[in-house]
Amino acid sequence: SAQDVAKIISSMCLTHASLSESSINLPTPSSFWPQGADPGGKGKDGQNGGSGSENSTWKPEIFVQALKEVVPGLNWKDVCLALDHQEFLIKDRPGLSLLLSIVKMGVQSSGLGQHFPVECVYQR
């Protein structure tokens, strides 16, 4: 539902800075191969094998694409309205940037236009 998506977005905006810390216990693809046997990379020096900072932030385009596939009829204006809940907090600029990116991509993917739905912000 729109309320669930809004709460997920809120959590993403709050945890963007500590994402790498919160995923420490999660298995990574490199944990399945012994040392030095990285089939996807070109060696231990990290070239073409990915960088540590690559996985340290949310990817809004992937999140929006996944939502589009799982919930194709999602109303993004309802999601924006549902962001008005008690746990909603944006604590820094990167969190705000992530929020705006997700909403803008979501609105564009649903065919509602190219702009942030400002009318949802000025609802009250």
TrEMBL record:
Stretch list, region Disordered: 22-57
GO biological process per UniProt: negative regulation of translation; nuclear-transcribed mRNA catabolic process, deadenylation-dependent decay
Bias kind Polar residues: ranges: 22-33
InterPro entries per the UniProt record, alphabetical: Not1
Transmembrane segments: none
GO cellular component, one term: P-body
GO molecular function: molecular adaptor activity
Signal sequence residues: none
Protein name: CCR4-NOT transcription complex subunit 1
Organism: Culex pipiens (House mosquito)
